[in-house]
Design goal:
Elements lengths: L25 H16 L4 E3 L9 E4 L11 E11 L3 E6 L9 E6 L1 E7 L5 E7 L1 H13 L10 H17 L6
Antiparallel strand pairs: 1-2, 2-3, 3-6, 4-5, 6-7
The structure holds zinc ion.
Zinc ion binds next to helix 2.
Length: 174
């Protein structure tokens, strides 16, 4: 399994709307595995295909703690079919915006329908950190970053710092 390069914001490739996967075939399944390898190496708890330059609706996640068994989740064409009225706020980060965090409120619980790595339709009910993580990764598929949920002032400060760090080569990611 290959480790892929993670794209760092600001980058126009992170703003693209991704296309649905027609079928989860061997090639897509391999990409999911490569994305997991990349995510674990970072390390992170979620990764979306556009973060590695693939404009397809694919995300991977694993929110298990270090002392727990790994619990990888691979999803193609995820779709939220139900969301709770109640929100929860997490201090979110992103592998494409290294070293920056912001509080984002999202529905506390969701039900998501998706294709798994064997092209089977599945539904998952998630709450808390997993629900937040799925919604964060799904945002990436529509070109939305967590900083798009905060004020323009805060967003611009973060993006300017990232641009500066990229130019000076201060970020060693990916
Ligand atoms: Zn992210």
């Amino acid at each position: 399994m290959a480790k892929l390069d993670i794209i760092i914001a600001p980058d126009p490739r992170l703003k693209l709307k991704c296309k649905p996967v027609a079928k989860v075939d061997a090639k897509v399944a391999r990409l999911m595995d490569d994305m997991l390898t990349t995510m674990y190496a970072a390390p992170g708890i979620g990764l979306a295909a556009p973060q590695v330059g693939v404009t397809q609706r694919i995300i991977v996640l694993d929110v298990a703690r270090e002392d727990e068994k790994p619990a990888p989740i691979k999803m193609a064409n995820p779709e939220i079919v139900w969301a709770s009225d109640e929100d929860v706020t997490y201090n979110e980060g992103c592998l494409s915006l290294p070293e920056h965090y912001a509080d984002v409120a999202r529905p506390k619980a969701i039900r998501v329908r998706y294709l798994d790595h064997q092209n089977e339709i599945r539904e998952l009910e998630a709450e808390g950190l997993l629900a937040t993580c799925i919604q964060h990764e799904m945002d990436h598929l529509d070109g939305v970053l967590f900083v798009d949920h905060i004020t323009a002032l805060k967003r611009n400060i973060i993006l300017r710092k990232l641009l500066k760090a990229k130019k000076t080569g201060a970020l060693a990611v990916g």
